[in-house]
Amino acid sequence: MAFCKFSTDFISKSYTLIDNVFFARYLPNTPPKLATIYLYGLYLCSTADDFANNADLEHFSNSLGYPTKDILDAFYYWEEQGLVRVISSEPLQIQYLPIRGATSGNKKYNKDKYGNFNLEIQNLINRQITPNEFEEYYSLMEGFSLPDGRKLEPDALLLVVKYCVKNKGDNVNYRYIITVAQNWAREGFITAEQIMQRLDDYDSSNQAVGKIMKALGSSKKTSIDEHEFYIKWKENFQFTDETILYVAKITKKSSGISSFEKLDRKLQKYYELHLMSELEIEEYEKNKDQIYSLAREINRTLGLYYDDVTNQVETYITPWLNLGFEPETLLKVAQDCYLKAKRTLNAMNDTIQALYQDGIVSQNAYSSHIDSQNQVKLHLSEILSTLSIQRNVTSLDIEFWQRWVNAWGFDTQLINLAVDVAKQRGSNLGYVNTILADWHTQNIYTIEQAKKAIENFKTSTPVKKDDTKINKRNYTKAEKQSIFEGFEEIDL
User: Fold this and answer.
1) How many domains does the chain have?
2) Phi and psi, residue 95, nearest 5°
3) 451 and 391 in one domain?
4) Residue 403, pLDDT score
5) Which of 454, 379, 371 is nearest to 413 (CA)?
6) How far is residue 206's CA from residue 200's CA, in Å, rounded to a whole number?
7) Which of 260, 270, 323, 474 is the 20 to 30 Å CA partner of 314?
8) Residue 470 φ/ψ, nearest 5 degrees
9) Which pLDDT score is estimated for 316?
10) DSSP per-residue letters across 58-105
C-alpha cells in the first residue's frame, strides 16, 4: 500500500489536465470513440500511480460501454500517433507519453498504398509537398470515418484539393484543405461522385453568390466560404434568393461595403425572429424604432430598466408581435403582470404563451378575458363570504373554479348548492371541491339529481349511538348513612 495517496474525495474534485496541442492537432481528425477512450485513460492515469493499478480491460470496457477489441484498437491507434505506448496487451498496460514532441511518433503510412494519390496531388499543387503534409492527408483518409464506418476516398480528397487550389492558388495552406475536406465529409460527402455533386451545386450558385457580393459592394473573387454561407442560407434557413439579395442591399446601405459574415449575422437574426420574406423584414426595419419604444415602455411597466433593449426586442417583443399581439394589448398584459407580482419578461412571456394557446390575442379578446376573470373572482368572493371565510381570492381558489366550470361542467347554481351543503358542515372550499368531485363521478349535473343525492346521503348516514352504559345501584338509607359513619375509621 502506498505511503501517501490522494483521497477519493480529493480525486473526484480535482482536474485532468489536457495539453491544448491535443485539441489543435489530434482531436479534429479523430473519430469520437477513439478520442473518448484516450481521454478516459488519461483520467484513470490521474487517479493512481499508473494505469494498471486503476482498472483492467474489462473495467475499462464496462465503464465506457465499448467492446474490449475496440479499446485495444484505440490504444494501438494512439500508439501509432505517438501519444501512448502499449507495454502489454495481456494484461493490458498502457503508458501515456507527453503530447508535445510526439510528432515523430505519428503513424508512418504505406506510401506504396497512396502512390497514385501522391502523384495526382503533387500535380495539382504547384509546390513541393512536404512529408508531414502527406502524412496529414493519409491521417485524414484513414483516421476519419462516418458512423457507418465509411471513410473519405482518395479521389474525393483530390477533387477537394483541386477546388481549393482553384480558389486559393498554389500557396493554399494544407490545413485549409484538410478543414474543407473534413467539413464536407462530416456532411456525408466522402465519395468522388458526392464531391462532384457538391461542386456542381457551387457552380450553379456562382451567379447568385456573385450578385450577393456585388450587392454588398465587394468585387473580390468568390471562394468556398461564400458558397458555404449561401448553401446555409438556402438549405438550412430556407431563404429565397430575392430575400438574401434584399438583406444584402440593406446591409450595405446601413454599413457601407460589407461582408458575408455580417450578412450571415443579419440573416441569422431574421431567421430566429421568423422573418422570412422581404415584406416581413421591411416591416420590421421600418417599425424598429416603435418596437424599441414599446420594449422600453413594457420594461418600465414591469419595473425593469435596460440601457440596451436589443436582446429584449429579439427575445420577447418581436416574437410576441409576430404572434399577433397588438402593442396596446402587450402593455395591458404588462400592467396586469405587475399587479400579480409577475415582474419579469420571462414571467410575462409565460402569460403571453398561455393566452396565445387559449386563442386570446386581440385587444377585445383580452378585455373579455379580464372581465371574465373579474366575474370569477366576484363569484369566489361571494362563496368565501357564505362559508364565513374572510380573506382575498387566491390562485388556488381560481383553479378550483376553473376545474368546476371548465373541466367538470358545473353551472353556478349547482356550485352554490354545494357551497350551501359545505356551509352546514362548517367546512371550507376544499370540501366544496370534494362534493362537486363526487357529483362529477356520479354524473350528477342537475339541481334535482343533486338534491336527491344530498337527501340519500343524509338518510344513509347512520346515527351515532351512545354506547356508554352506566349501571346504577340504589342504596338504602342505612347504607348511605354507614358511608359517612365509617369515614372516620379511615387511617390517614
Assistant:
1) 5
2) -115, 120
3) yes
4) 92
5) 379
6) 10
7) 260
8) -105, 120
9) 94
10) HHHHHHHT--HHHHHHHHHHHHHTTSEEEEEETTEEEEE--STT-GGG
